[in-house]
Amino acid sequence: MSYRVLCIIDRSDLAHTELFIGLKKAGVDIEVICNPTGRYYSRLKSSGVPMADLILKGRFDRSGIRRISNQLTTRPYDILYCFTNAAVSNTLIASRNRRFKIITYRGTIGNISFASPASWTTYLHPRVDRIVCVSNAVRDYLSRLRLFGLKIPNRKLVTIYKGHDPSWYEGPAADLSEFSIPEEGFVVGFAGRDRPHKGIGVLVDSAGYLPKGLPIHFVLMGRLLENRRLLRKIAKSPYAANMHLTGYRNDAPAIAAACDVFVMPSTQKEGLSRAVIEAMSCATPPIVSDMGGLSEIVVDQECGLLVPPKHPAAIAAAVLELYHHPEKRKRLGQAAKQRIYDRFHIQATISQTISLFEEVMREQP
Predict the structure, then answer these.
(1) CA 150, CA 169: separation in Å to the nearest integer?
(2) To pair with 30 at 20 to 30 A between CA atoms, which of 97, 214, 218, 291?
(3) Topology of 4-163+345-362 in CATH?
(4) Contacts from 64-72 at CB under 8 Å and sequence distance 24+?
(5) 8 A C-beta contact, residue 102 and residue 80
(6) In whole numbers, what is the pLDDT of the chain averaged over residues?
(7) Pairing of the two strands 101-106 and 286-289
(8) Burial call 186-200: b when 16+ CB within 10 Å, e when fewer
(9) Are 34 and 68 in contact (CB under 8 A)?
């Protein structure tokens, strides 16, 4: 089946970059229009994937709409695959009065409603043919949306996990001595945005349930230094001296590889945590909240530990369990890495995406 695909994205991350490259290698006639300031822009460009530049400043960006509209005149595209809210809304405007299959991508839970006008300019727009959900949790959330009999047809919702490859993270683990962590220290890692639903405060609170004086250190990655409430909470913790805020790090996977465990204490809205997948790819055993896409990544007691959301005492108990049982920690870490190979590999994402393209192309306009 012959078809042409234009992917519209902002700054393409590693997983999406490798998806585009993999689709090209698999024979898909694909082109990507994206932000040239992205970290993996040069990787994508050097791969031979046809590219064009696009910078979107919002959901209704006149210059961006013109840029997309002009791009649509360069070739007879069949499928437009949009990866961000701004990409969806601007592409829908730029492509009006023309026939394309429209596929969107949704990576988080929440913030979509039939009562919201903004949602009708993106995922609820009637011209959207498919919504690719990054996890079953996202798909289930969208399938439950209702208003006066309105709902998203099930045929529009498809789960395709955002695939990774553990080989991407095979470099050496980071040297944690820069954080003044002793060699005998037991390191608990975290990486995430400064958002309440990430549950970083819950993780800090969990230290209060640990016996005092243990050589347990917390390495907290992300732009957290301006969160005054969090800093006050840390200052009151009995493990305050062992909590290390690193700021944003480009080498987060290498730091996760150097940790003994990796914790994601999310309280809601978790689609499919990239940070957890990266840590698992490095054979670092995860401790995660039993909610959202996290419970799809981690199988309790097989490749990590699940704890109830908003339960700092349970996090502390899980940390202590792996602190006191290094053999179990090693077993869970190796199983975590294997799970990424088996269930969340980039090759599966490529194959499923191609199947989706072929499916929508078989449908009548």
Answers:
(1) 44
(2) 97
(3) Rossmann fold (3.40.50)
(4) 64/90, 65/90, 65/93, 65/94, 66/94, 67/33, 68/8, 68/33, 68/94, 68/95, 69/94, 69/95, 71/6, 71/33, 72/6, 72/98, 72/100
(5) yes
(6) 96
(7) unpaired
(8) bbbbbbbeeeebbbb
(9) no
Please name the residues in contact with 137: beta carbons below 8 A apart, sequence gap of 6 or more: 109, 270, 271, 272, 291, 292, 293, 295, 296
The predicted model gives 327-333 an average pLDDT of 98
Amino acid at 138: V
- d(CA 206, CA 109) in angstroms, rounded, equals 25
Residues β-bridged to residue 131: 104, 157
> Rounded to 5 degrees, what angle do the CA atoms 290, 226, 306 make?
10
Nearest to 162 by CA among 14, 4, 24, 60: 14
**Per-residue pLDDT for 331 more than 90?**
yes
Domains 4-163+345-362 and 166-343 are alike in CATH topology: yes
Residues whose CB is less than 8 angstroms from the CB of residue 112 and which lie 6 or more positions away in sequence, other chains included: 106, 119, 122, 123, 124, 142, 145
List strands edge to edge, sheet with 157-159: 51-53, 29-34, 4-8, 79-82, 101-106, 128-133, 157-159
Residue ranges per domain, the chain? 4-163+345-362, 166-343
CATH of domain 166-343: 3.40.50.2000
135 and 271 Cβ atoms separated by less than 8 Å? yes
Distance CA 162, CA 125 (A): 24
Amino acid 254 reads A
**Is the pLDDT at 181 greater than 90, yes or no?**
yes
Pair of tokens at residue 293: 């896409």
Q: What confidence tens digit (pLDDT) does each residue in 199-247 have?
A: 999 999 999 999 999 999 999 999 999 999 999 999 999 999 999 999 9
Tell me what percent of the residues of the chain surpass a pLDDT of 70.
Answer: 100
Work out the number of other CB atoms within 10 angstroms of the CB of residue 133.
26
Q: Which two tokens stand for residue 332?
A: 């869970």
For residue 364, the model assigns a pLDDT of 79
Mean pLDDT of 72-98: 96
